[in-house]
Amino acid sequence: MEELTEVITAAEFHPSQCNWFVYSSSKGSIRLCDMRDRALCDAHAKIYEEVEDPSARSFFSEIIASVSDIKFSHNGRYLLTRDYLTVKVWDLNMENRPIETYAVHDHLRTKLCALYENDSIFDKFECGWSGDDKHILTGSYHNLFRTYARGSPDAKTWEARPQEPHSILRTRRVCAGANARAQRARRGVGGESNDDELAADSLDFTRKILHTAWHPKENIIALAATNNLYIFSDK
């Protein structure tokens, strides 16, 4: 095990082409294999990989690039991948870069050293498609999860927490250090606090949503948070 430099982190079969499957690696690459080519799939048909900017490389680059989950879209044309800080959409016909990249918790980019020390940087988050492939779902810390409307800046953050059945779920917003302090200063000492705002420094990294699922036909999502299962519906 000590000699391994790259491991397989996730795998998925194509929803309609039974001979195609993809697998991802700890180095951030995704390989598409065709079982019609050979019985032993030790060579890939396509490899999806984004070239890293050398000037942005750091000690944590390979760790945060590791793909923790991969999903085919229901129509079979796209791939959805999740790494530590982002979720990406790949077109099967375009191997050199993703067609969409969404930041999940970019406010943690300055905290990677602390996350490495407490092993949180090795957490493996899942991702998922809505039934119509137009929305994306993934989890984060503090029991937060995010939904994205593809092709638009409409990204929402929600918190899974105990509440009355059929009550309306409210969005949350995470404010990075300086932002949070500025907003508190604007409210003043006697100003009212906004329950929908969370300071990045106050996030609880022991509460995390690693496992997510979206119903293939209905607007229903399921989330696993520690020892709790949350189910949300738009009805």
Automatic annotation (TrEMBL):
Keyword Signal: no
InterPro entries cross-referenced by the UniProt entry: PP2A_PR55, WD40/YVTN_repeat-like_dom_sf, WD40_repeat_dom_sf
Positions of transmembrane segments: none
Signal peptide stretch: none
Gene Ontology CC terms, in alphabetical order: protein phosphatase type 2A complex
Gene3D superfamilies: YVTN repeat-like/Quinoprotein amine dehydrogenase
Lineage: superkingdom: Eukaryota
Alphabetically ordered keywords of this record: Repeat, WD repeat
Family annotation (SUPFAM superfamilies): WD40 repeat-like
GO MF annotations in UniProt: protein phosphatase regulator activity
Annotated protein name in UniProt: Serine/threonine-protein phosphatase 2A 55 kDa regulatory subunit B
Organism: Ancylostoma duodenale
